[in-house]
Amino acid sequence: MGHFSISDLEQLSGIKAHTIRMWEQRYGLLRPVRTATNIRMYCNDDLRRLLNVSTLCARGKRISQVASLSDAEMQEAVLACCNDAHDYHQQVNALLAAMLSFDEQQLNHLFNEAAAWLGFEKMMLYVAYPLLQRIGLMWLAGTMNPAQEHLLTHLLRQKLLAATDALPGVPLSARRWVLFLPANELHELALLFMNYTLRARGQHTLYLGQNLPVEELGVVCDTYLPDAVVTVLTSQPERSRVAEFAREVSAHCGNKLVVLYGPLARQEGLELPANCVSPQLMTDFLALVGEQEPEPVAA
């Protein structure tokens, strides 16, 4: 059960705090409890209801009408109205509300619809990633239930694997990339998405996944002969060891391009070897992939 302040609700829903207070007072929309110091605190049910209300009001429904709906009626109305392929904010709200309800069927439905409208890559960039950023805010607020996050990340992982398997085969002569996560690093979604985008662009990938000791890269590079090596640094290595880790990877990979992605790789003042790059955003990584593609040979 989450414990959100009104500023947390504002960040997570996109609804201004003064509007939330007005809706609460006028329509009894939310049911906060007060702390010993008289501060309103809201629970997961309040957040889920606010997200659904936000979705319906953004589709032109009157707040007075929406506030009178039961939770079941509101959820049914949300499913019926999330049909704008480019209304990313409302799609994210609907997904977050479904996650809070542990509603796997609705999560699956919403992700599948977004992928059908936008294509899989755009769904990940414009819907799934903003959703994960909202979840990050909940972790920072101390209001995230690990089971809810596991439900969502497991579902996204399944979809990434299925989408990658559905891609056509890539010839061994294509540009080659090794993808891995460092020792004790288990946050895999970004690396799985990078693997999908590379394969979708006709690149060859060797996906080594989670928890690979860096010293194993030498034999991998000697055998597979990659053009580039990619890793994502979310929780590993320790912040103070990132530069040393980059030097180790660079040494094992010779002069190959090394891509370090993730929050630990974006430290200000971080000094990296000359063959290492650290894209700030996933779209920067995709631009880098485009730059690395060989020029077509003239007929």
Explain the overall architecture:
There is one protein chain. The strands form 2 sheets. Strands 4-3-5-6-7 form a 5-stranded parallel sheet, with helices on both faces. The chain has helices spanning 6-13, 17-27, 44-58, 63-67, 71-81, 88-100, 104-118, 120-140, 146-165, 189-200, 217-224, 242-253, 282-292; strands spanning 33-34, 40-41, 176-182, 204-212, 228-232, 257-261, 276-277. Helix 6 (88-100) runs antiparallel to helix 7 (104-118). The N and C termini lie far apart (64 Å). Strand 3 (176-182), helix 10 and strand 4 form a beta-alpha-beta unit. With 299 residues, the protein is α/β, with parallel strands linked by helices. The protein has 13 helices and 7 strands. The chain folds into 2 domains: 6-164, no CATH class; 176-292, 3-Layer(aba) Sandwich (Rossmann fold).
